[in-house]
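Supplementary Methods S3. Complex input for the glutamine-bound model.
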Amino acid sequence: MPEAEPERTLRVCALYPDLMNIYADRGNLLLLEQRCRWRGLGFAVSSAGLDEPLDGDGADLYYIGGGQDRDQRLCAQDLASVKRDALHAAAARGAVVLAVCGGYQLLGHSYQLGDETLPGVGLAELETVRADGPRLIGNVAIEVELEPGRPHVLAGFENHGGRTVLGDGMAPLGRVLRGHGNNGRDGQEGVRAGSAGNVIGTYLHGPLLPKNAWFADWLIATALGLEEPLAPLDDTLEDAAHASARQAAGI
Ligand code: GLN
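Predicted complex, serialized as structure tokens:
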């Protein structure tokens, strides 16, 4: 008997999957897929690479992964020109934008690398500067409150040379419990922007979603605009991964 069509399908668009993909970005997408499938939700992934137009209506969640400075150079101009309007339109209609590390740095206004300034897509008020100091590397844990009064811990790994500073009034994704966060100074990690808090940037990878399945579920539910919470899953293994990531971060 053919499988019944799922009632809902999460449509994900990966931006520059061939270039912006270090530290398990593909694993993050696979986790979203699997958690949808386990619940009988459909999952469809598309991609938009260099010079390819972006469909601002084509996805519920747009994903930009991490990248080396070299690859960010290639993508920054394209993101800020070819894809800018469509990504802004998607964010404005409430689609989730999730940008990790190198992708996060391109969400803002600019990424300064010595004498060179890479443009950002301008979805969040933030600037990043590549400092001369050491790279900010290590296990990291942050406290996030995606819904008021319901704090959660996100645990992961960071490795970045860039230091990010948020503009006035911009909310970080979370408060650093262990690790460096945006710049190693102000205790902020990531950004939560967009009119509904639907634009999210973070330095956490390593990989972000398999270590924080609860966050993946929040992304799925938010991207699909679900009123009801997602059906619970047996998360014994995922909880163990979370506990081990917290332990690695020392909390
Ligand atoms: N190239 C950026 C930096 O080093 C981001 C690196 C990454 O995505 N891990 O700051």
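The radius of gyration is 17 Å. Helices lie at 25-38, 69-81, 84-92, 102-105, 208-211, 213-224, 236-249.
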